[in-house]
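Structure representation:
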Amino acid sequence: MKKYIRASWMAVYNLFDDIATKYMATPDRINDEVARMYRIHKGDPDYDEAYRRWCEDADIDADVPPALFVIKDNHGRQLSSPNPDSDELWDRVASMEARGRRGLCVVAYVPNRQVNSAFNVDDTDFDSADQEFSSADTSLNQVAGVFRKVNWSPNTMNLDYGGGKFDRATEYLKDYGVTNLVYDKYNRSAEHNNQVIQKCRDNGGADSATCANVLNVIKEQYERLNVLRNIKRLVKAGGPVYITVYEGTGRAEGPTSKGYQMAKKTQWYLDEVMSVFPDAKYRNGMIVAHA
């Protein structure tokens, strides 16, 4: 738990480094692109801290809002003073861990808004797709294998993130009494995607999420992490997230006629997934995590 909390802003800083690498040939764009990414996530404590440090390293001014954070348990009870120092923070974490209690979280605020109110979002809050290779042509008219691996509960809502242009999975899940909501930046309209987000909000978050054969068609690590972060924002706390990828046919990673393929084994993505979903595990040919 300590490792995850301490490393969270560092993971964002590494995303900024990835942007710098991408635009190395046009260095004047680097800080603009980093700022663009930060503006989308402004108010997220990890992004605020990472951007503040990035600007210090680059010797530029940082427009970062002042943050207020407290520690709460999973019942919403406040366990610390506002903006606790590091000693108080880690003493509280150690105390909770020693008693075998779970659900400790850091809740951050900016003026008049709780940052991690997970469902106060619409499509404009999500990072815009900025992939070198579009995923638009990678959609297949079939039921992805992940849907056949899950023991679905009736009267639930599933978020199918990156679910493509077809509705085969939606029809498949109807037989199990599951409402499947497809969000896809490339293959669904902005109106459709915003309706999906609104339905998730109205439900207090999706009960579960699937991400089938999405991460493997995204070359950039920071874009893959954005996908995972967006999923987390739309799923109820504790809701299961099922992730599968196409592992390829033995060919090397690179561009294809329809986009891009990472050509990696499913386990390869586990560290990335764990940076967003710390409890993620690989089992039964897929990665299973909880929001």
